[in-house]
Write a structure and sequence with these properties.
This protein is of the alpha+beta class and 155 residues long. The protein is built from 4 helices and 7 strands.
Length: 155
């Protein structure tokens, strides 16, 4: 039976990670910036690996343009994703647990995230793990603004 391994992204995994998450030129540049920020300590980017393949990821950011989402006491969870063939196996929960442990270890009291209102599956996962909505906002991706729900969990 394959063992799931979750670790911060290692330099030797960066190319595979970029190939997965950078599906087009714009995404590639954005994700490349995220990887670079991870390697200089501006965020922590984890990967979930199963049978040598990256099957999931999540990031913990320490800054956000919206001060209600990240400040000296709060971290922001970004880019939680699990490949479709590996969903509903507990990988997203395991990734969130890593983020929460890291946040506690850094002395943060709370983590936040944004989720689209129509992403019912993700909302169920977050609520099951103790996240609660505290406001509505918008999120921009590739020049398009999307309505979002902002969730938080007190650690």
């Amino acid at each position: 039976m394959a063992v799931l391994e979750i670790t911060p992204l290692h330099p030797h995994q960066a190319e595979d990670f970029l190939a997965w998450r950078g599906e087009d030129e714009v995404s590639y540049l954005i994700v490349q910036g995220e990887v670079e920020a991870h390697f200089v300590g501006q965020r922590v980017l984890w990967v979930a690996v199963l049978d040598g393949a990256i099957v999931g990821t999540v990031q913990l950011l320490f800054e956000h343009p919206d001060p209600e989402l990240a400040d000296e006491h709060s971290g922001y969870i970004q880019a939680l994703e699990v490949r479709p063939d590996y969903r509903r196996l507990g990988i997203a929960s395991a990734l969130l647990a890593c983020v929460e442990r890291e946040a506690v270890g850094r002395g943060l009291r709370r983590v936040t995230l944004m989720v689209e209102p129509d992403n019912v599956g993700a909302q169920l996962l977050y609520r099951k793990r103790g996240y609660r909505q505290f406001k509505r906002s918008v999120f921009g991706w590739k020049g398009v603004m999307y309505p979002t729900l902002c969730l938080e969990k007190v650690l």
